[in-house]
Design brief:
single chain; 87 residues; Rossmann fold; 2 helices; 33% strand; binds adenosine-5'-triphosphate; binds magnesium ion
């Protein structure tokens, strides 16, 4: 289970993500759709600490991702990006 709780991301004055809340269950197919620049990759990069949220927390199995040892986390947690684009 992956949980985003009140997740926000700011780069300087720019708010990229604001108050994102979602749960993704084990084995669930979850599709994140949005226009270019809406923050999809930023949200994904939070799963293995490539990006650390400036607000809120992301949890993996009820444990805060920011509390994981980064090396162990990246051995346990990877991601693959699949891009669908209109013809
Ligand atoms: N390291 C960074 N520093 C400053 N701004 C950033 C950084 N990374 C991303 N951004 C900005 O955050 C916003 C969201 O970017 P992100 O790459 O998450 O969007 P995206 O939804 O994945 O876009 P795309 O569909 O083009 O891949 C954009 O405005 C981008 O310019
Ligand atoms: Mg992207």
């Amino acid at each position: 289970m992956i949980t985003y709780k009140n997740v926000g991301m700011k780069y300087g004055q720019n708010t990229i993500l604001h108050d994102v809340n979602l749960k993704i269950g084990d084995g669930e197919l979850f599709v994140l759709v949005g226009p270019s620049g809406s923050g999809k990759t930023t949200l994904l990069r939070m799963l293995n600490k490539l990006t650390v949220p400036t607000d809120g927390d992301v949890y993996f199995e009820d444990r805060k991702i920011k509390e994981y040892d980064v090396q162990k986390l990246r051995l346990d947690m990877g991601y693959k990006i699949v891009v669908f684009s209109p013809i």
